[in-house]
Amino acid sequence: MIDNSNDNQQSPCVLLFGGTGWIGNKMIDLMKEKSIKYYVSTNRLENRSEIIEEIKRVNPTSILNCAGITGRPNIDWCEDHKVETIRSNIIGTLNLLDIANQCNVHVCNLATGCIYQYDDKHPINSGIGFKEEEAYNYFGSFYSTAKQTVEQLSKNYPNTLTLRLRMPISDSVQEPRNFITKIKNYERVVNVPNSMSVLYDLLPVMLDMCCKQTVGVFNFVNPGVISHNEILDLYKLHIDPSFQYQNFSVEEQDRILKAGRSNNHLDTSKLESLYPNIPHIQTSIQDVFKRMKRNTSTPTTTN
Ligand SMILES: NC(=O)c1ccc[n+]([C@@H]2O[C@H](COP(=O)([O-])OP(=O)(O)OC[C@H]3O[C@@H](n4cnc5c(N)ncnc54)[C@H](OP(=O)(O)O)[C@@H]3O)[C@@H](O)[C@H]2O)c1
């Protein structure tokens, strides 16, 4: 065990990995806004000795791991780049979690909620969501199974917080990672209710959990579910009245994708027991579009 001389009296100091990424970048903005001390690591997750040196130097109260391969343009990339995905998302991430444990530092790791799919015990539109401790039942993509491998093993590290995000939504239609931007640009889109993470609501919670050194696994989505069509109808209403979209079935979608995509409802009672004010997705999405409208000077053209 390396003595990092951390104690809970120290004011929060976050060592961030993945600062050049979509979510990592937003966390930097948030930490600036909230005047939280932070350092952005330039180390690769796999580089053990450099990371240990960095922790000794920075003496963080929490490590926030927003680094990982997500694939470009999407997770289909991971199907053809399994070795690279293993190196970053399994070996690299476990390396970081192990170092954090060895150095006795809290670590928050971004995981995915795309590890379940609706089944007989959790039927679509039943209101029954998957709880954190339930066994995974979705194995349709290499990206998801790699994330499951890490999550399963990370439960052995008592200093780890695992946040399962899904279909993250931001306030800017200019951001290609925003779930709204993704689906509005698809030629055809499925229509299934899903749990989703509104970043405006959840990133401050992520930061608070790091500052409080919360541990455990959390479904990190807004309460409730929303469908693709509900989102696109709101996009049309608030942002671009000329927008049109076309649906297709999940089976038709599967035929054009390399990797599968999960559809599920995650139970949020554990998260809500700590943060009861996270808005329901149906309320939150209305506010997303109001902010998006304020941020959008000219309507976006449709495909
Ligand atoms: N966006 C989503 O839809 C979504 C959904 C659920 C969960 N998540 C998870 O949330 C995390 C952040 O996602 P994001 O959308 O912000 O991803 P992103 O925009 O693709 O950014 C990924 C970041 O990770 C860095 N990175 C990748 N491999 C690395 C390695 N081996 N060592 C150090 N840095 C590495 C990248 O830097 P380089 O470019 O220098 O490699 C980049 O800064 C990921 O773990 C992702 O799986 C994302």
Automatic annotation (TrEMBL):
Gene3D superfamilies documented for this protein: NAD(P)-binding Rossmann-like Domain (3.40.50.720)
Cellular component, GO, one term: methionine adenosyltransferase complex
Residue intervals of the NAD-dependent epimerase/dehydratase domain: 14-159
Any one biological process term the GO annotation gives: S-adenosylmethionine biosynthetic process
Domain of life where this protein originates: Eukaryota
GO molecular function: methionine adenosyltransferase regulator activity
Record Pfam families: Epimerase
PANTHER family to which the protein is assigned, alphabetical: DTDP-4-DEHYDRORHAMNOSE REDUCTASE, METHIONINE ADENOSYLTRANSFERASE 2 SUBUNIT BETA
Protein name: NAD-dependent epimerase/dehydratase domain-containing protein
Organism: Polysphondylium violaceum
